[in-house]
Amino acid sequence: MWPASGNHKGCPYNPETMRAFIAIDLPESLRAALRRKQAGFRSVSPDARWTQAEGIHLTLKFLGEVADHKVREVSECLKKLGPLEPFAVRVKGLGFFPDSRRPRVFWVGIEESAPLARLAEQVDQAMGTIGFAREQRAFHPHLTLARFKAPQAQPALQAAISQDAEQDLGSFDVSEFFLFESKLSPHGAEYRKAERFP
Q: Of the residues 57, 69, 140, 187, which is catalytic?
């Protein structure tokens, strides 16, 4: 699902549209763990653009610029998915997209599970019925820690994670997901939960 998942920059702000994506929010305990993880890697990759921990989400589908009237259609469509059966998500592993030779994204992995994959497919399918393009790549759940301006090897960062690549950051329970609004500011992207889907 990369690079659409987690990449919410690059479009100008239009007051008649909403830059939107559908995602699972993270518990504060995991955000704290991600902050610590980022802090440990900053010194070995100072050129990386580190994501604000408050803005890290488990993206199910990136929608892009959505007209105000279309937002209501998105909401109604997602409500028809019905109640979400709660499931657990495990956060484990570190890596790069598309690969370590020419990385653009540095991520923490999400252990793939049938309930998570099923939810992502349901969301993608539902959005496809109202005009959003279906994902062409397989769903690869992840949490973006950093992005790189130039896709070139990061030997110091690769060495730092070599002893840590499969570290388990624990799990959390998912019982809801959200339609998020993303706005660009001088401090980076700011996010607002537009609607909750339990």
A: 57
